[in-house]
Amino acid sequence: MSTLTPSIDLSHLPHAARGRLFGRERLPGQLDALWLDPATRVVGLIGPAGIGKSTVLGHWVSRIVTRAASEGVRIFGWRFGSPDGRSDQPDTIERFLDAIEAWLSIEPCEGSALTRATRIANALSGQVTLLALDGVESLYGAISGTVDNHGDRVLECLLSTFRGPGLCVVGSRLELGGLRVDVGYRSIQLAPLSAGVGARLLCELGVRGLTERLESAADMLGGHPLSIELCGRYLATFEEGDVRRLDRVALNLADADEKSRVERIVAGVEARLEPAAMQVLRIACLDNRLAIDRDAFWYAVETLRQPPVVGLTDAIDGLGRRGVRAARRSLVNSGLLAPAEHGVVSVHALIRALVSRRFESAHPASWREAHRRLAADEIEQSRQAPGGRERGALIRAIRYLCIAGEAPEALAVYLDVFGDDHPVSDEQGALSLSLEALLPFFDADNRARCELDDAQQAKVYAKLGFRLQALGRLDEAVEPMERSAKGRIALEDWHGAANSAGNLSSLLLTLGQTGRAEKWGHRAVACADKGADGRQRVSKRAILVEALHRRGKLDEAHAVFVEAERIQREWQADHPILGSIMGYRVGALLLHLGEVGEVERRARADRVWSEEQGFLLAVALDDLLLGHCERRRGCLEAAAMHFDASVEQLVRCGRIDHQPRGLIARAALRRETGDWEEAAADLRRAEELARLGGMKIYRHDIAVERLWLRAARAEPLETEAIDRLRTAMKETGYACRFGDLTELQAECC
């Protein structure tokens, strides 16, 4: 479906209305009613692959389009990548956000994808809008699939914030777990077709036979529309439309689930295809982009038959474009390719996965060679692009190389694009793209590919963990970080081991696992000392300082801080104080100990240096410390200025794991100045970020601040609530806020 007007963009929702609406005739009317219901903002069309979600969505969107201009309705459609691991959209959620921002004509928003999603949802308000989003299940899955930069959470954030007027209709194999009834969410489960409706569909496809036989066939196919469509087209194309020959496509269809049934049918259809058609299908199934992008398809055909690849292009080597087009038409007739506009075709995700798997099994060497060639082409295209580093092409090349079994070569491409250090560019979406480029290095069990040696595996685990943490996916980051730390310790790579152990300690602390955080903090220090790197020895002690501080071990934390500063003076005499995140960690301890003047002196000095170096995160954390100092001295206006600057900079950094720090601090100040609604808003935003990332420590801080806000409003405090919070803090070992609870307990009395 193409773009119709500036306010209607369906160009990213391919072939949505091409199927038959058999057995679903009432659903468009049901969607019409929900469209008019102001209490409903999100509708989920839920069902397994091939059940007809895209067909229903496309037909209904077409109905709205016919009256959109006269009613002033904006419509935006999007098809997310498929969850079969073979999508051509490695940066799905970022591309979605980019496209919808361009459609809304709003300037791209710096910061995290969650921040952008909230801003987009706000921009959608004020005019009647229809969002039609298909294939949402691709955002829900394991790291090794097509799950993107926590795309499920980003989309749920957008849908939860969307206030209308209008509606968002979502097609998904999985229920949207993060949405609740109180945000206006309704779920419609698509059931299998009845035997009578299935028989009618078979007749429409050209299948002949007694009604009882047709109904029996539809029932044997489980009422599954895709299965019925494939079988009907097979019978009409190869078996003269005789329903009695159904067993020739596949046996025992009645005892199979949807996926197994389609796999058996596809195998039966493949067996009847001409070799040229079979190979054209295999090319289209290598990557969905090769099906829907005609230029990419023809380019791949030429690349893959010079010289021919056995089982993939040897049968079409002598065919011109006319012959290849004829083969594609036969695939459309057989139902394996779905027609769309302007000669474009597409492949159902389930069919693409099955055909690719069968080709890989039958011709493993050809499978690898095809992806090697595609990777080489993508790298060459990247070199020809302005600047010679077109990231989309290089990310595809990384994926192709990993599929070809050449993960070490892919890692070299990755390091060339994103660098060998953890930090990536402040460019919008850089962290997300870097994460997506890492996903092909992991198998279905989230383990690094076996082609990588131990050091390379430790490297990709470390990079994966760091990027997940930076994007706020803390709970997912623990396993790769721990694997990286243990792997590097085993290799006696003390520099890398110190980094991985330190990052893991910091991560575990934020998750509320303070005991494990302290343990890994000590291991990080030990590794750094063996590596004899001054910066490592200092930074890992700063991490240990924070872990000990949070656990209430103030004397021990202070002793580690003193040792860290001694090493810092020896290592970097021109900058003798701890700065950046190290400075924040020790600054928080010193504030707890009442050394406000010392914290201010350090933060101001480090802020000047960090600004000169362009370290945005360091500047943000220095502003945060300065805000705390000004608040302690009663200079609330100056404190507000620093906290506002810190929150803004933390958002710009895209570091979701640090953003709650600024929001909680600003909420406390706003509570003191009587700006209670804004304080509550900051706490809600911090809670959302902390909940999405599993940041239990921040949630404790938020709970404490909410109790203080109730006290400021003269609302009653419950002793039981304080006791529950104390118990929760004891379970996580978070002892440094017990003083607040004691004061709050006194307020109750």
Keywords:
749 residues, mainly alpha, six-stranded parallel beta sheet, two-stranded antiparallel ribbon, 63% helix, disordered N terminus
What does this structure look like?
- The protein is mostly helical.
- The protein has 33 helices and eight strands.
- The strands form two sheets. It has a six-stranded parallel sheet with strand order 1-3-4-5-2-6, with helices on both faces. A two-stranded antiparallel ribbon has the order 7-8.
- The protein is globular, with a radius of gyration of 29 Å.
- The N terminus is likely disordered.
List the helices and strands and how they pair.
Elements (H helix, E strand, L loop, with lengths): L7 E5 L14 H10 L5 E5 L6 H19 L2 E6 L12 H13 L8 H12 L4 E6 L16 H11 L4 E7 L12 E5 L5 H10 L6 H10 L4 H14 L19 H15 L2 H12 L1 H5 L1 H11 L16 H14 L3 E2 L5 E2 L2 H14 L1 H21 L6 H13 L3 H12 L11 H9 L15 H17 L3 H17 L3 H17 L3 H18 L2 H17 L3 H18 L8 H13 L3 H18 L2 H17 L3 H18 L5 H14 L3 H18 L2 H17 L6 H14 L5 H11 L1
Parallel strand pairs: 1-3, 2-5, 2-6, 3-4, 4-5
Antiparallel strand pairs: 7-8
Helix pairs in contact: 1-2, 3-4, 4-5, 6-7, 6-8, 8-9, 9-14, 10-13, 10-14, 14-15, 15-16, 16-17, 16-18, 18-19, 19-20, 19-21, 20-21, 21-22, 21-23, 22-23, 23-24, 23-25, 25-26, 25-27, 26-27, 27-28, 27-29, 28-29, 29-30, 29-31, 30-31, 31-32, 31-33, 32-33
Largest beta-sheet details: 6 strands, parallel
Instruction: Based on Cα principal axes, name the global outline.
Output: globular
Number of helices: 33
Q: Numbering strands along the chain, what is their spatial order in the largest sheet?
A: 1-3-4-5-2-6
Radius of gyration, Cα only, in angstroms?
Answer: 29 Å
Low-confidence stretches: 1-5, 82-91, 142-149
